[in-house]
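Hi team,

As requested, here is the filled-out complex form for the adenosine monophosphate run. I kept the field names the same as last time so the parser does not choke. Let me know if anything looks off before we queue the next batch.

— J.
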Amino acid sequence: MIPGVRLVLLGKQGAGKGTQAVKLAKHYVVPHISTGDMFRATVRSGSPLGEKLGYFMEAGELVPDAVVIEVVETRLREDDSRTRGFVLDGFPRTRPQAEELQAVLEPLGGLDVALDLEVPTDIVMARLSGRRACSQCGANYHVEAPPQVEWTCDVCGGEVVHRADDTPDAIARRLALYEQETEPLLGFYRELGLLCVVEGVGLPNDVFSRAVEAVDARRERARV
Ligand code: AMP
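And here is what came back:
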């Protein structure tokens, strides 16, 4: 395994991006950059920006592109992501975000791969309605697969909660926005020759093995 990768993870809400992003980031020794986790931390800080973000997030709406792009660009300028790469989780979600990311990465050699986790809508609905998440580190659980100690995160000891945007209305809105704004990015990355599609149904470790195989195959093709 060659450490370092510049990877974006695509897939519907509930496709398992968060779970796979953590595993992939550890495997390739790169930071896991989740815009959702960064925004939730800003909301918890109680700052004026956090208050504004909370309004969009609770309703299942997208945060405006200009705000998201500024946050991601600042993060990508840090040493770890500049030198080793990253796993981007939850970004890009719109065409302007994807175009801006291409522009930012151009001097760094560009993106290696856009990995799409394919999961049918009925399965993501079932996952999202029973999902519980750590309010500190973002680790995901399910009412049928809770943490070992009552609603205390196995990873960091944080409180495991029902996310404010995992309500039926907000879930429906987020999935509709995915279809409208984010799904078209599959075509964008396919045209650039960067798209890898991986079946996201199954045990997390099996999905992870498929993902690593697809990423390594794509990097091998790009190298020769
Ligand atoms: P997530 O944890 O990725 O589902 O993100 C939670 C919420 O944060 C989303 O429903 C949006 O309100 C906001 N958000 C996260 N990433 C983005 C993005 N790239 N563009 C716009 N809004 C975002």
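Two things worth flagging: Residues 13, 35-36, 39, 56-57, 60-63, 68, 90-93, 97, 165, 174 surround adenosine monophosphate (CB under 6 Å). The chain has a mean pLDDT of 94.

Thanks,
J.
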